[in-house]
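ok so heres the complex, two chains, lmk if somethin looks off
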Amino acid sequence: MLEQHLVALPIILPLIAAPIALLFGRTILTWAFATLISAGACFAAFSLLIAALSEGVLSYAVGGWPPPWGIELRVDAANAFVLFAVTALSTLVLLYSKASASHEIDPDKQALFYTAHLLCLAGLSGILVTGDAFNLFVFLEISSLATYTLVSLASDKRCLTAAFRYLIMGTIGATFILIGVGLLYMKTGTLNMLDLSARIAALEASRTVNTGLAFIMVGVSIKLALFPLHMWLPGAYTYAPSAVSAFLASTATKVAVYVMIRFIFTIFGAEHVFAEMGMDFILMVLAVVAIFKCSYVACVQSNVKTVLAHSSLAQIGYMVLGISLVSVTGLMAGLIHIFNHALMKGALFMAVGAVFYRLGSVNIEAFRGLGKRMPLTMAAFTIAGLSIIGVPLTVGFVSKWYLITGALEQNNWLIAGLVLAGSLLAVVYIGRVLEAAYFKEFPASHDSKDVKEVPLSMLIPMWVLVIANIYFGIDTSFTTEAATSAAQWLFQNNQVLELTP
Amino acid sequence: MNFIFDYYNYWVVVFLMMAGFYIVISANNLVKKIVGLNIFQTSVFILYISMGKVSGGTAPILVEGVTQYSNPLPHVLILTAIVVGVATTAVGLSLIVRIKRAYGTVEENEFENTDDAI
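and the predicted structre for the whole thing:
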């Protein structure tokens, strides 16, 4: 019976658990409950991924109303892959939160923190699993509203204005998506994604549908923080509590990238969006500008969380660049980078959160001499940092490898060169932190007794991610297989567009 | 002229949308920004509601002698979107309350650190 409803579990579990989590009264129980629920969702997502890889598509009619009339939940290799990454990251971040959140968030607000986290997870899973365009908007708003709350829970008062800015931008983005979906409905009379794609293909060029496409692309670009619509992101990631930064950086924008992929490839059809509307060129230019502009800004910041936030923006550039290559390899590079970036950025933000836990600051000066004081934390930061740069034997190398392969398949040497040049900038911004940590002395003015390694409950999730960074960098069979079948699936869906070199 | 009168509902939508958007961008007061955001969202509600109207159709309730009904689905969808809008407003206003406590003002130009401006 449970297996029959497996598709709905990653949404239903956290959604039902969120209000229940409030009733426990004691923070430690709430934490244990939330972690357990998230682990359950992760397990369901893993079973879904296995099932999707072997069986293809799993469809579930909510409430027994068959699609296209009812809401359909639809899992294929693409969303099962991202869903697994999101739920796994959520579980690790919750494990990490026990020490980190109790240090950074008011005791009476901690139960609310776990509730908001579960709601956010429910929203993100919903976006990934749903096969209905309007339902996607609703889940997008559930996750976003929870996110605004999570960001505003930090003790630094600047998190409030950051959350407010995020709320304004996020709501505008979501409303744009709503307008786009409305225009599509006006023209096609359906909201089911597959039904939409069949009817849009039959319409050929309709101005209403193209306007809908424009609204949706701008709305999604705000949500995934594509340059130049990214201004909300650095503040939100910098001032949010560490656990929240780690969770959001590794999941929220990645899910928005998935939404973009879903709208382009499943609903509108790659041929229409890229060949007829020329969207690939726009996306490619914005992605390249994002990589360079945001990497450069990351090089000159003094707050390490801001550095990582700008680095996230650059990494989103790589994902969008993969999509804009319009080939199976390029799309696969984008998908695999969604998973890999979640691993590395999660580990980096956790390491920075550990530094904040001990020193109460994440300025680059605070990192001086930490290589000796907090060796495990800084080793985690180093390995995840190398992964961001794309050093061989880490997952970052795998993503960049496929991205460059995708570019070279089309003889696009310029893009291949730009990806490599962008990686060099990553060397600079990660290198600055490592230099402070390993080559500068620990300042004598600090009380050195307090600065020691963080509790195990923070180190373990961090190192699980670091080991995953190395493991999936060496044994790439699982991630590449999942990403390749996802990319092929997305292309097959509406034939086409195998660009031959 | 027909272009204006036949599509007057869309003109209303576009006007409200732009007015709301402009308020969000230009207003200095955070509460006014939320008001602008509300107007912006409401315009989309009207877009949905007006698209469900079928000329000559009545409310979609089965009664004898009526064969033409308006499409109820956009209306139902927008009920959900209204709930989302109300929730967004609530979160926005509660953030403003906390900003007022922390900064002592809800005027953007009165924040001591200009980086904090929205």
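quick notes: The interface with chain A takes residues 21, 24, 30, 33, 37, 40-41, 44, 47-48, 51, 74, 77, 80-81, 84, 87-88, 91-92, 95-96, 98-99, 102-103, 111, 113, 116-118 of chain B (CB under 8 Å). thats all i got rn
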